[in-house]
Amino acid sequence: MTDMTETETLQPARQGGESNGATRERNEREILEAAERVFAQYGYRGASVQAIAEEAGLPKSNVLYYMGNKRGLYVRLLERMMARWNALLDDISVEDDPADVLEAFIRSKMQLSRRHPEGSRLFAAEILGGAPFLQEYLRGELREWVQTRARVFEQWEERGLMDPVDPVWLIFLIWSATQHYADFEAQVLGITGKDEISDDDVERITQFLTQVILKGCGVQSRKD
Amino acid sequence: MTDMTETETLQPARQGGESNGATRERNEREILEAAERVFAQYGYRGASVQAIAEEAGLPKSNVLYYMGNKRGLYVRLLERMMARWNALLDDISVEDDPADVLEAFIRSKMQLSRRHPEGSRLFAAEILGGAPFLQEYLRGELREWVQTRARVFEQWEERGLMDPVDPVWLIFLIWSATQHYADFEAQVLGITGKDEISDDDVERITQFLTQVILKGCGVQSRKD
DNA sequence: CTACGAGTTGACCAAATGGTCAGGATGATC
DNA sequence: GATCATCCTGACCATTTGGTCAACTCGTAG
Asked: Where are the transmembrane segments (chains A, B) (predicted)?
């Protein structure tokens, strides 16, 4: 009864061996998830390693054993979130259909916030605090990302496929609107009186945003 | 030379008398402003009384003398921000012109974020963290505010003055878009490469948002 | 001069902070 | 059975945290 197979199913964790690095992998995953929640809720300074450890169900020393220090853990989480974001929308081209691209953008951004609400809030908290760890990323990679898309939007404008609007502000509009439902979930729930945002809600919101933004920019589908 | 009139002009603050409560008023103002900055940047947990005191140029003891404790100071700031928000948009009626009302809403919300960026970020940080201090406000006052406006929007829809869109989500759209420029200022600056958002920028953004959102909702002005 | 209310502040406290470290546990390899 | 790499963790540390307090300064009112 008190053999190894039981400790196998009860989380605590095997020491030593376990052949490969399975223990490490599992524990790191557990810690990263816990940390994402805690950092998202309290911000970098407000989060404590102790709180993360408790959330992960491990001693503080163990968290530090795997992650080195608080700063490293935080940066690692930010990088993970940036990677998710980068994998979001492939390159687009002038030849693509504006309506399709914008809808896909809204939809995938919405799903990113939906699938990783804690990561989304973590990101938001970092930027709220002046982005001390993300300056480089914002002024580099992300800026490139935005500008290449903006150039395509401009060409669409020239070809009369959409109204002349500043494409960068359009991207911010989409960003903020989609981000809102993850970051300000507490506000949305409080005001609507719901106790969770359902998949149906997400779909309706996505369609609402798509409808309003496409129409608002006078986007003409190539198919028409 | 080392008489009183000098210490009068050098801020430190008069002790004793000063007749009325002018000292109190001035110091409280100073502390509130400093606290707003610090709380906005680090969140409730992450902000320290010491940091607030340094920002205000006072000893920690003095801050606590005026504000009692950290929690009270924080709540007071939230209440101040809520008051600003409540004073924002008067009651609206079905008889008003939808285009005027929406534009006024966007414009005044934008200016609120512009005039009080720290307060705006403070609010955002509070909600990001799950709104532990604001649950009541969100489920009460603010919910009422939103719902009375939503009802007017619905009546406009019935009268064919705008497209049938969920009015609550429309309000969130406007909220998020305007909030973004204060809360995510670091992101906006990083991506655009500017080093501040000018008054001209604000005006252009306001016009962009008005244009896109009004058109996107098919808002008909009564004047037409 | 005295008394008083308002303001100021360094010293102090228990608790929590991020982080280190030594010592131990465990299974795989030789 | 010895060695090794991995993992685990309680004890510990200097620093910072929010908050208290008593001693002080000062102008004014009696």
From this structure: none
Q: Which CATH architecture has domain B8-68?
A: Orthogonal Bundle (1.10)
Cβ contact B149:B167 at 8 Å: yes
Cβ contact A197:A181 at 8 Å: yes
pTM of the full structure = 0.91
Distance B9 CA to C6 C1' (A): 20
Separation of alpha carbons A24 and B116, rounded Å: 46
* The pair of three-digit structure tokens given for residue B123, joined into one six-digit string: 């609010």
Test B41 with A188 for CB contact under 8 angstroms.
Answer: no
At CA A94, angle to CA A84 and CA A111, rounded to 5? 25
**In contact, A110 and A69? CB cutoff 8 Å:** no
Pick the CATH number of B81-216 from 1.10.10.10, 1.10.357.10, 1.10.375.10, 3.40.30.10: 1.10.357.10
Q: Is the CB of B7 under 7 A from strand D?
A: no
pLDDT tens digits for range A2-43: 333 333 323 344 454 455 677 889 999 999 999 999 999 999
State how far Cα B150 lies from the chain centre.
21
Looking at CA atoms only, how far is residue A167 from chain B in angstroms?
10
